[in-house]
TrEMBL record:
Transmembrane segments: none annotated. PROSITE patterns: PROKAR_LIPOPROTEIN. This is Esterase.
Amino acid sequence: MNRLSLFILLLFLYSCQEDKSPKISISLSEELASEVSDGRLLLLFHGSDNTEPRFAVSDDVNSAQVIGMDFENYQKGNSFEFDISSFGYPIENFKDIPSGEYWVQAYIVKYETFNRADGHTIKMPMDQWEGRQWNRTPGNVFSKPKKVNWDGKSDFSIEIDQINPPVEEPEDTEYIKHIKFRSDLLSEFWGRDIYLGAHILIPREFEENTNEYYPLMIFHGHFTPNFGGFRTTPPDEDMEEEYSPRFGIYGYNKIQQEEAYNFYQKWISPDFPKFIAIEIQHANPFYDDSYAVNSENIGPYGDAITYELIPHIEKEFRGIGEGWARFTYGGSTGGWEALAVQVKYPDEYNGCFAACPDPIDFRAYTTVNIYEDDNAYFINGPFRTTERVGRRNYLGHVSAMLKDMNYKELALGGEKSRSGDQWDIWQAVFSPVGTDGYPKPIWNKYSGEIDKEVADHWKENFDLRYIMERDWDTLGEKLEGKIHIYCGDMDNYYLNNAVYLTEDFLEKTENPYYDGEVLYGDRAEHCWNGDPDQPNYITRLRYHTMYLDRIANRLKKTAPSDFNQRTWVLNR
């Protein structure tokens, strides 16, 4: 062999070595393997052992690395050869992951098969009453974090031998009761038993005064394991005050306990109005709640909550059981839901209090106008392109781009809206069903190109401002005096932009004028809920008492004459 041939051979061998992908073998312990069939296998990298990698995936710059691949028909006894070339986040290509020492973890999100009433068969994660949290779902399996010296070439193996335990459901107390209710509507849609739940806060002397009937306060929001912000004992004396990164203060854990105890003291005081407050549990295969409306992909949750669950609660706990005595409120997801159910079921509710609502006008779907923009991720000019922002703080400092927030979901859940995260649930709720049975994307999850036909479907069915404006001739008299919206003008996710556009419409309404209120918090971030005198880290703990004066005024205007305004009791 001459020198040139030898040189070419060595160069070839060197290039092969450079292009070598690591072989990553992932096995399952024998006792766990029999329960795995279909799902998504995640490989996670984290630079610290302070937090397991599965709990460290986020939108911010300190996120753990995740790479995901779907699988079907796993056979017990086999190992997974992980496809390291699969899409990753925050780093898309594994070859760009810097060499170094990482804590690595394998995690399986299990899928189940649903034969839906619409004729589609799909595979999705199933909520196990934990609120559709992929990294905590009972029955999902994973490995212990393993230290790996990563160079992008060396092989390694991982054994999955851990399983998430079942959820411990809360027990009833004197004031807080719990129900789990099988929905006929949802069970028919999903082809299996589907349950709704609720935490119910009952008023003082409920058992003694069996002739009393009460208004219903419906708090919409994310899945909660128990009724939040209610505590019958004083704050723990020996509590170590913790730092809250979100609010930049120490002792927020103690503040939460103090506020919860203060609420309890108000609740039982003789001059406090009596009513029933509920927090609904409506997790589903796509997210930790349903957005409380009827959806082609998620099912008739709006009807199930309004016509099945709420009447059941009113019957069991002596609710008045009429639309004039029901009020909805909540923040963020719950803010959107509070407004949405008021708009879509105008006769069934007598007022909504929507704080920092998710986008209520899709001309400002956070920072995207889905009707006019061609791309969700990029703003294109003749000579340059810039990325669209996704999250900021009250000073306007940007901490995440919209593309990256979607790429996180793409790595976690793939292309079928299965991440269990924010953009995927919006898509699942608002979109029509695609030909494959999964939600039809509003935009290409990788490129950001917007589908205008899907945007039109969103507009006609879920753009709350557009629906009110389109139907005001018939809706207006049913919504008069019922709409209250609150938002910080520096909302972290730019949700105030949709509120501005909605307010523009509401202020122009005639025959009738909407006669509600829209308020903004100066430099207030996400979840400002209407109190200009208290910091938001306090007011967010007072949802159940914040709107009582406005609700009382509404009842004075609309309640029948035999309704006792002092105790909010209908004397039947």
